[in-house]
Protein 1
Amino acid sequence: MLGLVMQREADIHRASVPMEAPLMSVNCYLLSEGDDAYLVDTAWTPQSTPDHVTTLLSEAGVRPQELTGIILTHCHRDHIGHLVRLQAMTGVPVLLHTDEAKTLSLIFGAYARRRRELQSWFQSHGVPVGAAADMLDTIPKTQTLELLRPHWLSGGDVIRVGSRRWRVLLTSGHSPGHICLFEPERRLLLTGDHILNNESPNIGAWPGSPIDPLGRYMTSVRYLASLGIDWSLPGHGEPFQDVERLIGRQLSHHQFRLNDTMAALAGRPRTAFEVANSVPWVRRSMRFEQLPARHRYLAFGETLAHLQHLEALNMVQRSMASPIVWWVVAKTAE
Ligand SMILES: [Zn+2]
Ligand SMILES: [Zn+2]
């Protein structure tokens, strides 16, 4: 679906690009007013569908060479599909948060190095060699992504689009340098993958990612709840208005997962791999080993994120030796 996001917002256009379940589609947005025009994310590039980004620009009457810049909410593959081509075609700066350098290194570094790093990281968390290999085989072998004109953003920066002022909010968690864009006058939020309507974004801990991504995520969604947001424009799915309800749902989802993680550690210390195998997955209906290998990979990162958050809350501790084991901190009598 292409066109204006909402009839009354003449400065915001959206392309919704089909992708596979469960997300079904990914959005990219064009913010344009006066001489300013920014693409926010560049969508996904499935082989079989037309180039929605070019159509989006032409429907909005903006030639690619007239873009002011490309803003990335984060550097996951489903949000940067046309980036290489658009960079080469337009030469415009690519605006992203400084902490997304970590995501670029994890996803787009040299394949052999990434695989080696992840392999020893899995090993340090007690994942058997065969189980690790199954998950590692799902890592795409994509070549390095080169940003030709990166412009590194910080939280609190303001991006002017004509008369509009979009504030950059660092919303770390789903990726280290994930950002949302907030326009205070209309209380509009471009959420990226931080808050979605029908899905819980993956919050994982990975080699090189900042410690306690779940704690960062929970802090930043609570902050969003304080902004009085009217409309949210997500990275996947349709715009929505009830962001506070969705934030509440996310917080309780993670509280359930934290409780499951604590229950998995009752009785004896366990590795993260043992914890992942002890907690229920997919609406409590599947065991870890039943998940497809790619989902096991993501679920393992989630398990680590929950363990790190419990550690930050001083509820669990871990050993330093490999494989790392985790245990519940004994409560001391007052
Ligand atoms: Zn993402
Ligand atoms: Zn996404």
Protein 2
Amino acid sequence: MSSCPAESQTSVSISPAARTAARCTAGLPREAAWSQRRIRIGLLGLGNIGQAVARLVASAAGAHAGVHFHIECALVRDPSRARACDRPPCITNNVSAFLHGRYDLVIEAMGGIEPALTIVTQLLERGIPVVTANKTLIATAGQELQALAVARGTTLRYEASAIAGVPFLGTLAARPLVSSIDRFTAVLNGTSNFILTALEEHGGTFAHALALAQQRGLTEPDPARDLDGDDAADKLALLTSVFGWGRVDRASLEGRSLRDVSSRDVRAARALGGALKPVALASRAAGGVEAFIGPTWVPAHTPLAALGGTLNGIELHGRYVGDLFFSGPGAGPDVTAATLLDDAIEAVREGDRSGGSGFDFAQAKKDPPPHPVSQLPSRPREPLRITAPITPWFIRVEFPGVVPTVGVLTDVFGRAGMTIEHVTDAIDGTRYVLAGPARRERMDAAIHDVWRVHRLRCVAFRRLG
Ligand SMILES: NC(=O)c1ccc[n+]([C@@H]2O[C@H](COP(=O)([O-])OP(=O)(O)OC[C@H]3O[C@@H](n4cnc5c(N)ncnc54)[C@H](OP(=O)(O)O)[C@@H]3O)[C@@H](O)[C@H]2O)c1
């Protein structure tokens, strides 16, 4: 019979009582020991994601891996707000009160940079594992936070921050050499993909497709972050950071809004052997990164072209692996919550493997941090420069009156230094042109000339292949 006190068998390992429990369960089969784990969670944010985490914790699935999560406290802006989940024993808007809780792990689902960055930094400094869904935080300070976690012997995990339903970041992190990535092409925003798919399948106006996305709860009340590319840009910056390329200068990233796309464009793209998709592309280049985001023509035979509805996908190119492709649901509260809890389980297991997990605040106050903060790696001073790549183009040409002949179009674009590969028949005052590779500046100059001389209105989308 075990001589362990009953109380200690439900504790976690970092406190003296929990260390005793760990010793007491050491002789049990692994699953039996796991079934006794009770993990105290601090939850930063109780919005869409935080509430889904709380619901999952309260459900049977919350104990699926034999780990019993218990939410001790949630930090919110407005503690009086009704929540669509069980209320944790403590809900506070006081950061110090939250930080005085005793947690084995903290889940960050607040969003934004501050105060999340300051709080997560404090938690990692004290050795508390942190799991986050916050792409902006990881894109901005992921490398520094990761270095801090390593220095403090704890864990930072962020699988839920990009393409939450597709566990690929952890897979790559576990194989850093084999999966060293030098280029990726991705659909990173499910709302944008849904809108382009709706334009193709149902026709109608952009406003109608957007309304459909809103009816299905796929957009924020203000959908600008999805439509104008901010969300995809955050994820692109996160990935360049996670792949070890460095922090990129977001301000220099070329982006085209989805609002420029019509159902006619999407159908013409298909008729020309491709598909218009909301693409984010980044490639390592000498001295920086080549990248852009925006609706882009991709060949129909590529995996990205096959992604419909809200699906996300990422095609990775690495030196040793050639091409890899991951796809699946991009976001949504339930899948994000499940990924956060999977990360939490993984963080606890990592703590077990390294001989300790969790945190005892009272003990930590007695023990100074192992390294002075000044010795931590500082943030790189200069972000990486982003340049836009040279690509071919898919161009909508609208004419108010006389149909411009193929010869005229070839001539006017040719004079602007562009080569023309194909021109479609004219339908309803519109032709589509496939143009050869050029820089964005040359494309813009050509569009300007075509308007100035011939009063032809053009909208150009990048083309991959
Ligand atoms: N929604 C998705 O499908 C999805 C998918 C993947 C990743 N994510 C990421 O998950 C994170 C959370 O997203 P969400 O949709 O859950 O956001 P949300 O609904 O706006 O929830 C944010 C939560 O954080 C709290 N909060 C925000 N600022 C705070 C502050 N200064 N002090 C204290 N509490 C604060 C809010 O408190 P109140 O409730 O009192 O306002 C709210 O509970 C974001 O980083 C997002 O990018 C979301």
